[in-house]
Amino acid sequence: MAAPKGLLGLPSFLAGVAALFWVFQGAALTGFLKWWCVGPRNDVEAALRFLKAFFRYRVVRLGDRMPCTDRKLVYLANHRGWADFFVDMFVTGARAVPLSRRAVGMAFPAFTSSLLCIRSILLFNRAGVRDTEKFNRWLDEELSQGPQNSLLVYPEGTRSQKHESLPLKRGMLRYAHTRQLPVQVVITAGKEQVLNERRRSMHFGRTLVTGCSEVLESKNYADFEQFMTAVQALWDETWAKVHSASPDGLPELVPSFLTMHYTPAQLAAESLALAAWAAVLAAICSLAGFTALAVAVLPGGALLLAALALWTGTQLQLGSLQLERSHRFAAFEAEAAAGSLGSPAAPPGREVARLLPRLWQLPW
Predict the structure, then answer these.
(1) Across the beta sheet with 96-101, what order do the strands follow?
(2) Mean pLDDT in residue range 239-245
(3) Distance between CA 26 and CA 122 in Å, rounded?
(4) Which end of the chain is more exposed for a tag (fewer CB within 10 A), N or C?
(5) What's residue 326's pLDDT?
(6) pLDDT tens digits, 257-293
(7) Cα(first)–Cα(last) distance of the chain, in Å?
(8) By the 8 A CB rule, do 89 and 165 touch?
């Protein structure tokens, strides 16, 4: 069933991927990104708000702690999927530079080119890091030149959608320790429900739960192993709290964004990247339009296009409807597993009569 289900949800998934791929062009066309303004602005914030409006997701905060914004530090986030990019940057107020593999830049060149122009992303070749100290010096240099001087990393090292965390890798934690940078764990549950490349699914209107740990001072640990143990314990504690929390009644997280002062060279480079990829987008849209016209004149072509449009529209609508159903269905399953929906010894007919009113409450 996995393959047909993934195929049925393909239109909504591709719409989500397109929004992510063309995020800066979408933000510019919808007015989120004020590309005509030469004064202070934050183009990363504009792109993130465009994606938040597109996916219509909400982030609620567990506890009183917020991502630390008054000092240079390393944010440690959980790695779930492609949605990590925009959700974690939004949660941290785009105050940190995400450290990503070079393959990300190759897969999503439209938005990474704009981020590179304003020095708001760092791309590296993970397989090519042989001289650790040289790599660390490169990080120091890049962070000293960019508008953001904090770092956003994923210490699990790889994407995982398991119900438990992966053991933390040492690389970036050792960097934080050698540079005496404080670290803060920022865990967000449910990111893979927004955009999931493994299941080829996308949903609108998800509510995500974010929890932040206390800021851990690496300078207080002379020994790296002790620091590593403390980080792992803090990570496990935050992970458990966030993933066991219900979003009901939690306050919405309102991040604090910086006002950036981009240089004329940065603005010129970004404008060029925006225009170049906008031209590519226009060419793709034109090609798609001509292809649709060519198909429409074929026998049965108009019917095929209508079916395709209906399929796409239905899947996009289902992306909105499945949210509340999933939350209520999870509660329904938990109640059923606990045996509170009826006695196991009850006759099947009576058991069905008990279940039908509860099933009716689910927004199928």
Answers:
(1) 58-62, 207-212, 183-189, 74-77, 150-153, 96-101, 122-124
(2) 95
(3) 22
(4) N
(5) 45
(6) 999 999 999 999 999 999 999 999 999 999 999 999 9
(7) 19
(8) no
Mean pLDDT of the chain: 85
Is 104 or 277 the better-scoring residue by pLDDT? 277
User: What pairs with residue 100 in β-bridges?
Assistant: 123
Residue listed under structure tokens 């660390």: 136
Question: Which residue reads 């798609």 in tokens?
Answer: 288
What pLDDT, in 10s, does the model give residues 31-49?
Answer: 999 999 988 999 999 999 9
Q: Read off the pTM.
A: 0.83
d(CA 310, CA 317): 10
Instruction: Answer yes or no: are the C-beta atoms of 129 and 77 closer than 8 Å.
Output: no
Say how many residues make up the chain: 364
